[in-house]
Fold this sequence. Notes:
With 626 residues, the protein is an all-beta fold. Among the domains are: 1-113, YVTN repeat-like/Quinoprotein amine dehydrogenase (Methylamine Dehydrogenase, Chain H, 7 Propeller), CATH 2.130.10.10; 114-214, no CATH class; 339-422, Beta Barrel (Thrombin, subunit H), CATH 2.40.10. The chain contains 2 helices and 58 strands. The protein has a 6-stranded mixed sheet with strand order 2-1-7-6-5-4, with no helix packed on it. It is elongated, with a radius of gyration of 27 Å. The two termini are 25 Å apart. The relative contact order is 0.08. It holds the Pfam family WD40. WD repeats lie at residues 68-109, 200-241, 329-361, 542-573.
Amino acid sequence: MSEFTQAAVTITSSSLSLNLPPLPTTSRGKNIVLSIHPKDPDKIIYASGKYVVVRSLKEPYGKESFVYRGHNSTVTVAKFSSNGNYIASADETGKLRVWASNTPEKKSKLEIQVLGGPVSDLAWDGESKKIVVCGDGGSSFHLRCIIWDTGNNAGEFIGHNKRATTVDYRQQRPFRIMSGSEDMKTVFYAGPPFKRDSDTTSHSNYVNCVRYSPDGEMIVSVGSDKKIVLYEGKTGVVQNSWENVHAGSIYSVSWSSCGTKILTTSADKTAKVIQMPSGEVEGTYTLGEKLGDFVVGGVMSGSTPCVVTLSGKIHILNASDFSASPTTINGHQGSVSSMFLDKSTGTLYTGSSDGTVAAWEAGTREGKNFTGGTNADLNGAVHGGAVTTINVADGNVITSGWDDTIRVGSAATGSSDGAIGLGGQPKCSGSSGSVVVIATKDSLKVVSGGSIAGELEISYTAQAIAVNVAGDIVVVGDSANKIHIYSLSGGDLAESNVVDGHTGAIHSLAFNSEGDKLAAGDVKEVRVWNTADWSPLIKGKWQFHTSQIKGLDWSSNGEYLASIGTDENLFIWCLAKKMRRLNYKFAHKGGAVGCAWIDEGKIVSAGSDGSIVEWDVAADMAEKFK
């Protein structure tokens, strides 16, 4: 069973059969914090936008992922408690939330303002009672330790005069805390109640990460000075240091479960495994040569290294072969801005606000990012802005984006090469067979054979397009509540009718497989039109959405219709039971961009939360529409 959480409310549904969460959020020049479950090292946790993601490294495209959606601001760090029962997550506003990880409800246990600015890192004590956070405290302290069930302070943390970038907590008694900062110092605290015990200036640039060994006997710090420093765990006394281990800033360090090795990641696009306390480099992983291959974070899953590059991709490295290709978890860092399910193959295609395009294999939903585009060196983006539309025609994946271009990608190779200018920003699209129709601000463009085959100027604002199965009728919904009907021959469009009657702007359209019915969604209502004479078949009954309906799709038998919108609701409607509806609330935080039937009992949807979700609705439909 997959899970979502919405604010303090958890959305848990047995109907959620698959959840593909977004990739970690990354930023050039900054490390990201990764952490693993203390009892299940195959379970990783990270921040992605305003969300916290927990996913399995064994089955990264499987059913075990969940997305916590309780923060209202960008999440900066999240970690499991030492007993694995809770998760602490903090955001850019300085708020800390503690919530249960071992229950379906993921109930919130604490929300507190811990710092005056963004939190950079946090750590739990070994008894899961206290949490220390660090970050930008403004004119106040840059660290704070609290007893989390009361919110009371557990010490006084002076020592840094700039943003504290990293912190860790010794898991054994006597408890100790070490922090690192942009002031280039590491500070050692003894307690509780904690007070500064000592500080060192072994680094000559920002300290990016400090981490205790599992037994608490050693602690390591790494920094932008390319230096690794080893300390004694109880006293904080420097034991050794190594310079220029990497050719670039060292962003993170993580210990193996046996406590004899560390994993370091760097801007030199490598990750290294180093034996401790000798400092001998056991091996080096090279992640690539592009800008997006900067290795900005890493964690040891037992003895298996797992790293994240600037592109956001998660790479599971081979623990016994430093030259072996990694297992890469692909996807999107940003929100999903468009989706298309190729029903002939079952492959799902999605586009993102970051310009990337991904293909998700039928059945397994293993992801693969398309290559090509203007920003490929960083994140493999196909477009120079958000991907507005995706369609498949004759084995080609036709995408359009905010860079005002169309790109023709190969479904077989996953390559999108060459751009076709649109002359304006794309608004919406529809397709059938070999034909794709894309609307810009002032025109409709017919794309066929990988090129623009026809064009028609329009005087209205198009917001939704659908093409019937035969490919000879195109319908366009506009902002003035109308549906424009066109005949299509070759690349020529000719308007034949205008359907009026909706009370809001049209945001989605869908023909059934027979082509005799058209579903149209506006800002609250779904109507069904008879395409023979364009009379309404269903009117005034399916009006339970509360904002824009962004996706419509008919089941293959034409008996059911799915709708999804910016109100975060997924509805299923039944032609035979017009007064009944099946509703899944909080489907996507921030709204959805589309939905599609995979088969008669399964739906896939995607949305602004960056998640791609499959819903097993067969049992619910049988009960609701019996």
